[in-house]
């Protein structure tokens, strides 16, 4: 009976809110210690690398399109200059700011099943086009309230050989098949996402329902078009070059959660 009622609620929600639009603020929290190498090298890196990097994001959404981007906080520069901060604290804040993918954008054409990611790396801009896959989630039946909205839990079903663990909470009350960082494919907007048991968490912080102005959501057009595999290979080679230039001492680069659809 509970399942039947839930399906009925979702169907009513889809009908009544067919023209919903607005903006959602998210906070991304990355556990940078989780991926460090084991042993003495990893322990040394922990001394100068903060355990967590946090940055703000914004999702503009309509029933047909979404646009996800990083929000640069203006007070960061002032914080870095505060005299009361120790050298180590200023270094930590600098690393946290560098980790935020400042100008990256994820555009989703929900209606036509298209996602376009704009990524900046080593002063170059890349465009990665892909399709939204709709059949890689298992809805568990678990429910809870997130930011005042009724949500359901879903877990990502990876391809063979993929060990990534992803759990999300989505709300049928906003029937847009999308979410943060290009994740989507569910009958409702994703409000909370967890990758690899806390390695990356993206949580909603504010929801504003409003009519979007024309042009607020735009598909990114400028950049070199590459596949996800080509981009990862370019990044791998450049990072290896950086390590060799610095005598094998790699450093953190800009980054964000991979967009699994």
The radius of gyration computed from the alpha-carbon positions, rounded to a whole number of angstroms, is 20 Å
Strand portion: 35-45%
* Corresponding CATH superfamily: Lipoprotein localisation LolA/LolB/LppX
Determine the fraction of residues in helical runs and give it as a percent range.
Answer: 10-25%
What is the count of helical runs?
5
Can you count the beta strands? 12
Low-confidence stretches: 1-17, 249-258
CATH topology: outer membrane lipoprotein receptor (LolB), chain A
Which CATH top level class fits? Mainly Beta
Main sheet specs: 12 strands, mixed
CATH architecture tag = Clam
Question: Kindly state the mean pLDDT as a whole number?
Answer: 78
User: How many domains, in number, for the residues?
Assistant: 1
Which structural class matches the secondary elements?
alpha+beta
Terminus-to-terminus distance: 31 Å
């Amino acid at each position: 009976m509970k399942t039947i009622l839930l399906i009925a609620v979702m169907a009513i929600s889809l009908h009544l809110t067919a023209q919903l639009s607005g903006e959602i603020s998210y906070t991304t929290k990355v556990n940078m210690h989780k991926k460090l190498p084991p042993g003495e090298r990893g322990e040394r890196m922990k001394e100068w690398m903060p355990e967590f990097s946090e940055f703000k994001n914004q999702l503009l959404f309509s029933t047909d399109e979404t646009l996800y981007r990083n929000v640069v906080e203006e007070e960061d520069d002032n914080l870095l200059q505060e005299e009361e901060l120790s050298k180590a604290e200023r270094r930590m804040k600098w690393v946290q700011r560098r980790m935020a993918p400042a100008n990256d954008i994820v555009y989703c054409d929900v209606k036509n099943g298209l996602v376009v990611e704009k990524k900046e790396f080593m002063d170059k801009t890349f465009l990665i086009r892909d399709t939204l896959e709709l059949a890689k989630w298992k809805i568990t039946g678990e429910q809870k309230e997130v930011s005042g909205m009724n949500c359901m839990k879903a877990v990502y079903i990876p391809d063979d050989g993929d060990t990534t663990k992803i759990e999300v909470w989505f709300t049928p009350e906003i029937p847009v098949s999308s979410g943060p960082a290009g994740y989507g494919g569910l009958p409702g907007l994703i409000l909370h996402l967890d990758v690899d048991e806390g390695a990356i968490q993206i949580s909603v912080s504010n929801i504003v329902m409003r009519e979007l102005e024309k042009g607020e959501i735009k598909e990114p057009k400028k950049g070199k078009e590459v596949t996800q595999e080509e981009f990862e290979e370019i990044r791998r080679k450049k990072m290896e070059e950086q390590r060799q230039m610095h005598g094998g001492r790699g450093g953190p680069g800009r980054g964000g959660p991979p967009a699994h659809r």
